[in-house]
């Protein structure tokens, strides 16, 4: 069994010409190919929670993931993005809930590999996947649900619903930078915000025509993609960012852009009238909805306190606080003629990937990539996320 896997992986990796030696943190390591023959791979992992500088370690002896169901595939990662949640998870964010889910799925808490979205090549597939769906050798893009071992390692095992063929008009770097942030924006706008049906509302004239959406934090990973999705729908897009990001966001095509450090921006936005959706991609949270005088049908924030409250107070008391916060924000908002305040979440849904794929293929969605780090400098990529003020996405190039 071990021998079979070794041959499969070798054949595929050799096709990639992956025979050079690489050096990580001063250690000379054999390639992914050679490692794989011994059931081992290289990657970055943590053994306990803390800060990235102390906890994130490179290893070339990580156990290769194995397929646990007939609908799983093994992917050799070529590029992966780094998201704020990776660094938050190193700090222990969501540990109670995520670890419960992980253990329920037969996993263990440590060592833990971070990394949620990637581009790569299929090297092995389960028996439940037909050749019409996906084949060994296909270039793919995909996501890993947050409670599972991530993709900041040579190989990652994923269920087929998390994996699609990579759009041919995207480079591997760009392809690795879309899905986590893009599925967050998609889920906020369509699952939570009902902007259209699950596959979007795209029509020749734009299904969102006549609608007004305000995007807070349009300069970050989620914001830059949310803006492009809304523009593709024909929505009138208002956005906020800081002064140094205005050129970047304006190049995306937003209709009205405001510097959130300018104290007059709150009143300027209030004078626009009612928004169909205010989408908070800036981490402002639920309370902010009642602090501003804006009118909206819905305020959707991705800064949900759910996991944080459960981490801090346990499941029962944490959920009580979550419900109390949501009720409080909604009562205040509704009293001020505002609409409901909701939480939005990343959702690894195939409908969302299909939607994003369609936009990319139509040339309507392209990620903004701030910087690409080589695999050997993954720790620096985590440090860049810690510094905040991101302009689009941070990517790790494995090749
Ligand atoms: N619930 C979920 O499942 C998920 C939640 N998230 C959350 O969504 C948010 C966005 O994620 P992501 O895009 O990856 O994060 P980023 O850090 O990439 O983007 C945040 C952007 O917002 C800008 N910003 C900060 N403060 C403000 C402000 N007051 N007004 C307007 N812009 C501001 C930042 O730049 P600058 O500071 O220079 O202005 C930065 O460009 C984060 O809070 C993240 O934690 C993300 C994914 C999934």
UniProtKB/TrEMBL annotation:
InterPro entries per UniProt: ADH-like_N, ER, GroES-like_sf, NAD(P)-bd_dom_sf, RTN4IP1, YIM1/Zinc_Alcohol_DH_Fams
Gene3D superfamilies linked to this entry: Medium-chain alcohol dehydrogenases, catalytic domain (3.90.180.10), NAD(P)-binding Rossmann-like Domain (3.40.50.720)
Highest rank taxon of the organism: Eukaryota
Keywords assigned by UniProt, alphabetized: Mitochondrion, Oxidoreductase, Transit peptide
Keyword Transcription regulation: no
Localisation: Mitochondrion
SMART domains: PKS_ER
Domain Enoyl reductase (ER): 51-396
Family, as annotated: Belongs to the zinc-containing alcohol dehydrogenase family. Quinone oxidoreductase subfamily.
Name of the protein in its database record: Zinc binding dehydrogenase
Protein source organism: Anopheles darlingi (Mosquito)
